[in-house]
Amino acid sequence: MAKRRNEIAMTPEEAETFLQECSKPGHSLEVASIGPSGYPHQVAMWYTLIDGKIHFTSYAKAQKVLNLQRNPKISCMVEKGDRYAELRGLVIEGEAEIIDDPETVFRVLKESSANHADGNPMHAAPDEQKRKVASKRVAIKVNPVNVFSWDHRKLGGSY
User: Fold this and answer.
1) How far is CA 126 from the centre of its chain?
2) Is residue 105 a contact partner of residue 57, using CB atoms and an 8 Å limit?
3) pTM of the full predicted structure?
4) What is the torsional sign of CA 116, 121, 127, 129?
5) How far apart are CA 126 and CA 136, in angstroms?
6) What is the pLDDT of residues 79-128, one digit of tens each?
7) pLDDT tens per residue across span 115-127
8) Beta-carbon contacts of residue 107 (< 8 Å; ≥ 6 apart)
9) Cβ–Cβ under 8 Å, residues 51 and 107
10) CA 93, CA 107: separation in Å to the nearest integer?
11) I want to staple 48 with a disulfide (CB 3.0 to 4.6 A). Which of 8, 111, 123, 142 is the partner?
């Protein structure tokens, strides 16, 4: 099985291109933190990449932020493809860094909303309104520890 996994793994460059692609409309990042009862707490988030690392915003009092304050372990997944032979995906296990700097939060909010500009009222909002929304939020930066990827297109239709 390890050989097959190696055949379909993305290179670091392919993984970054894939993450850039999936930060656009039609895709969400699945984010899992450890809830207060010990079970995974999973949510879908829009994100942006800054210096090659996933960043997203959340309300400072949201459950996922409370979870990450207690335990910074985080898992993120994005997947694309409708048929098995087209499936591509990436899982990042890492440590979440909670950023409470207003300028960073504003930047992440602005970039992630721009990635989903079509039909997103936040994208069209003036910067003053975005700053007001950002003031109640924090940014989460995902510092990878383990990365797992797959690109079934590399199999050429065979399994």
Assistant:
1) 25
2) yes
3) 0.89
4) negative
5) 17
6) 999 998 999 999 999 999 999 999 999 999 888 887 776 666 666 676 78
7) 776 666 666 676 7
8) 50
9) no
10) 24
11) 111
